[in-house]
Design a protein that fits this description.
- The complex is a heterodimer.
- The model of chain A has no long low-confidence stretch (mean pLDDT about 90).
- Chain A is of the alpha+beta class.
- Chain A contains 4 helices and 3 strands, in the order H-H-E-E-H-H-E.
- Chain A has a single domain, classed as 2-Layer Sandwich (GMP Synthetase, Chain A, domain 3), CATH 3.30.300.
- Chain A is globular, with a radius of gyration of 15 Å.
- Chain A is about 40% helix and about 25% strand.
- Chain A has a 3-stranded mixed β-sheet.
- In chain B, strand 4 and strand 5 form a beta hairpin.
- The longest helix of chain B is centred in the middle third of the chain and has 12 residues.
- About 5% of the residues of chain B have low confidence.
- Chain B is α/β, with parallel strands linked by helices.
- Chain B has 7 helices and 5 strands; from the N terminus they run αβαβαβαββααα.
- Chain B is globular and about 50 Å long.
- The chains are: A alpha+beta, B alpha/beta.
- At the A-B interface, helix 3 and strand 3 of A face strand 5 and helix 5 of B.
């Protein structure tokens, strides 16, 4: 059957997992002014652990821990299903 | 900055399953016996009891998670030997309670002077950009990395 092969090809060329796409979507909604969002599944595609990088002027003048809290809050539901996550936030350098 | 962790080294730290603790004098891997009513008050007292307080999976001698290990190793690099470490794996109520207290979903958690500082990513960032040396100085703790740098400068 060609189905497993198609699936393999899809995974090889698909740039993101469903989980990554979903989380990116949520972040785009919750941080409309974000200039860069990158979500990577670092659990080998299992959706257990993600690395999130997000740059937005919405983080301006906030301490790092507060910036991370904003991301935690935005992903409150998604985090419930995760084992862990890594967050890297930044403010755009040129406005 | 000598002793600074590059990305690759930091990634390696996170992969370590067991810490290379080897006897950390002054570290109290305490079990807090937290639970029941007034948990927030209990935790509040706990994080204020010592200058440096960390909540880990495992102990400084045997971290059970790469992220917790990273926190232990960073503190070790700075020569911070006297800190309170609480193992959330020993106490499920503590494990959930500390997350509720700080409104932060993950372990490890680092508290300096009773204030929640963040998890391992933030501590790593603070270590890399020199903020950790400054924060320790405010607590009256001289980072070992300052002495290392001094030696280097004088050569």
């Amino acid at each position: 059957s060609s189905l497993p092969l198609l699936h393999c090809v899809h995974r090889m060329f698909a740039s993101q997992t469903e989980g990554e796409l979903n989380i990116t979507h949520v972040l785009k909604e919750k941080f409309p002014r974000a200039t860069a969002i990158k979500v990577t599944d670092i659990s080998g595609g299992c959706g257990a652990m993600y690395e999130i990088t997000i740059e937005s002027e919405e983080f301006k003048e906030k301490r790092t821990v507060q910036q991370h809290q904003m991301v935690n809050q935005a992903l409150k539901e998604e985090i419930k299903g995760m084992h862990g996550l890594r967050i890297f936030t930044s403010v755009p350098k040129c406005l | 900055m000598s002793g600074s962790l590059g990305r690759a080294a930091a990634a390696a730290l996170l992969r370590w399953g067991r810490g290379a603790g080897g006897g950390l004098p002054g570290v109290r891997a305490a079990s807090s016996g937290v639970g029941g009513g007034g948990q927030a008050e209990q935790l509040d007292a706990l994080v204020k009891k010592d200058k440096v307080v960390v909540f880990l999976k495992g102990t400084p001698e045997q971290p059970q998670c790469g992220f917790s290990n990273a926190v232990v190793q960073i503190l070790r690099l700075h020569g911070v030997r006297d800190y309170a470490a609480y193992n959330v794996l020993d106490d499920p109520e503590l494990r959930q309670g500390i997350k509720d207290y700080s409104n932060w979903p993950t372990i490890p958690q680092v508290y300096l002077n009773g204030e929640f500082v963040g998890g391992c990513d933030i501590l790593l960032q603070m270590h890399q950009n020199g903020d950790l040396v400054e924060e320790l100085k405010k607590l009256g703790i001289r980072s070992a990395l300052l002495d290392e740098k001094k030696d280097q400068d004088s050569k």
